Amino acid sequence: MDSVNRQWRLVRRPVGAAKVSDMEFHEGDIPDASALADGQILVRTSVFLHAPTMRNWMDEPGNNYYPSVPLGAPMLATCAGTVVASKDPRFTPGDRVTTIGSWQDYAIVDANVMPVRPVRPDVSLVQAMGPLGMNALTAYMGMTKIGRPEPGDVLVVSGAAGSTGSVAGQIGKIMGCRVIGIAGSTDKCNYLTQDLGFDAAINYRDTNVEQEIRALAPAGINVFFDNVGGEILQAAVENIAKNGVIVLCGQIAGYDNSEPISGPRNMMRLVYGSVRMQGFLLGDFEAEIPTATDQLWEWLSAGKIKHREDLREGFESLPESFGDLSKGLNDGTLLVVTQDQEAHSTAL
Amino acid sequence: MDSVNRQWRLVRRPVGAAKVSDMEFHEGDIPDASALADGQILVRTSVFLHAPTMRNWMDEPGNNYYPSVPLGAPMLATCAGTVVASKDPRFTPGDRVTTIGSWQDYAIVDANVMPVRPVRPDVSLVQAMGPLGMNALTAYMGMTKIGRPEPGDVLVVSGAAGSTGSVAGQIGKIMGCRVIGIAGSTDKCNYLTQDLGFDAAINYRDTNVEQEIRALAPAGINVFFDNVGGEILQAAVENIAKNGVIVLCGQIAGYDNSEPISGPRNMMRLVYGSVRMQGFLLGDFEAEIPTATDQLWEWLSAGKIKHREDLREGFESLPESFGDLSKGLNDGTLLVVTQDQEAHSTAL
Fold this sequence. Notes:
Chain A has 348 residues and is α/β, with parallel strands linked by helices. In chain A, 27% of the residues lie in helices and 26% in strands.
C-alpha cells in the first residue's frame, strides 16, 4: 500500500500551450475510505490519457460548455485504475475501471456525475485506454452515429494520424468509404496509406489543402471527420458535396489560443449544399459504449483496425509529456503509465 | 393574346444592394411553341415572388453552390403562371403551375431541371405563391424535417416577421414550442406577439440580442431557425442548449455584401454542446411538397396559421419592389402581380 498521494495541480492558466510551470507537484495523504459520500468511489490510478481537449479544461471558467479545472486542484484527466473503496453499489473494491479522474494516485470520483466504465477482464488497462479507449470510442460514435457514410462515399479525416482520426479513417474503410487523411508530416502520411490502408493522405504543411482535396475528390467530400478546425475545416467546406456531413469531433487548431476558434467563412455553402455540421461527445452515447467496445475489439482482433500507443512512464512525467501532445511529438495515443504492473496485466 | 414579351434583364453585378439600374427593360417576341425542346414548357407568368436569396443569384459565377444569372439574361425568379405550350407529357396548356422562371411574361422552363409544381384548383396563383408558396413550404420543411422540435422546446426564429420566419414560428406553436421571434422593429415584434401568437419577440435594433435571449430562455435554445446569420446567429450560438439544433434556412445578413458570411466564432460550443447545424433547400424534399401543401392549407383554413402578402402591381415595378425587400419595406411576402385576373382567380 502506498503511503502518499502524489498530485499534479494546475496553478496557472496557461498562455498558449500548457507548460510544466503551469503545474505544481504535491504530495499529501491518501484519502480515507470513510471520507467517501454516497455515490463516490476511490480509484487508485495506473494509466492516464493525454487528450488535446484537456487544454480547454485549463482555461478560465466562464463559459458553460466545458469544465474548467479550479486553480490549485489536480488536473482533470481520463484515467484507468482500480477501485479501492466504493460507496456506489455498482462498484466493488478490486474492480478495474476507466473514468475521468485527475492527476493524482488516488482520485475520488463521483460515479453519478462522471462516467465510470468497467474494463473487460481480458484486456489490460493500457488496452482499455488505448485501442478501446475514449479516443477510439469517440471515433466509432462519430462515424456510426454522426457521419453515417454510405459505401462508396468519400471520407476525409483531419488529424488523421492522431489517436481519434486514425481509428475514424479505418472505420471508414470498414464502412466502404474512399478515405483521405490529412496529417502534418510525410511520415504520418506514409503511416496512413502504407500501414492503415487509407486511400490517400495530404500533408497540410507542404501543400494547398483545398486544392489537393479537389484533385483527389473532384465530386466532393461526403463526410468530413474534423479534429482540427480552422483553415483545414475551411478547405473541407470549400469541397463539401451536396448533402455532405461535417462531424465536429475536435477543433485542435484553436486549443492553444486565447480566442475561440471560428467556423467556416461561407455559411451559404452549408445552406445551398444542405450540409449537416454536427458536434458530439462520447458521453452522448454512453449506453452504446459496451456494444462499441465489443465491436472495436473484434475489429482489432481481426487485424481490421491497427492502433498505436505512445507509452510514457512515471507519474512525474505527466505535465512534460502533455506538452509533447500539442507539439505533435507523440507517436500514437499518448498514455502515461504510473503503476506498471496494474497497467499491463489483465484480470484473467 | 399578348403581342410582346416584356423582360427585365440583369445587366450589371450589383455592388451592395441590388439597384434598379442593375436591370434593363426589354421588349421582344413571344417565344414560339415550336421552339420548345423535349421536356420544356412555355409559361405565361402572372405572379412573381421576391425572395432575399435572389440577391445571391445576381453575383458572379465561380462558386458551384448556387446559380448565377448570366449578364444580359432575364433575372431568375420564382413565379406562378399558366402553361401555354408543353413538350413535357406531364403538363398541358391551361395548367396552372409555380416554377422557377424569370422576369419575363413568357418563360421557357425546362421541367426536368427546374421544379414545376401544379397549383391546387381551389387556390389562386397569389395564394399558391403566398401562404402555400416557396417560403411557407420552406418553413414547413425546416421545422418538420430539420428542426424537429419536441413539445416544450424553446424555438427561436430570426427574421421572424418575414415570409419564412413568420410561418416557421407559427408551426413551432402548433408543434408545442415556446416561440421567441427576432425582428427589426417594434411594429414587427408586436405583430409577432399580438397577431401570430409568438410567446415573445426581440427587436434586434434596440437591444443586446444575446442577453435578451438569455433572459427569456435561461435554459437555452433547443431549436434556432435562422434566416439571418452573422451576429444574430452568434447570439443564438451563445445561448444554444445541449443537443440544440440550428436550422440554416438563410443568411440574409450577408446577401448584400461582397464577402461571404461567416459562421459562429466559437466552434467548440458546437462540439461540447452536441449541436447540429444543418442547411437545407426546399427542393431536398420535393416529393413531400404535396403533403406539406395540404397540411399548410388545413392550418390556414383552420386559422392556425396567418399569412400576410404584400402585393405590388405591374411588371414594370419588378426591380424597384425587389429593392424594397432588402430595405425591409415589405409588409409580408412580397409578390408582384403582372396579370391581375389570372393571379387572383381559382380554377374552380
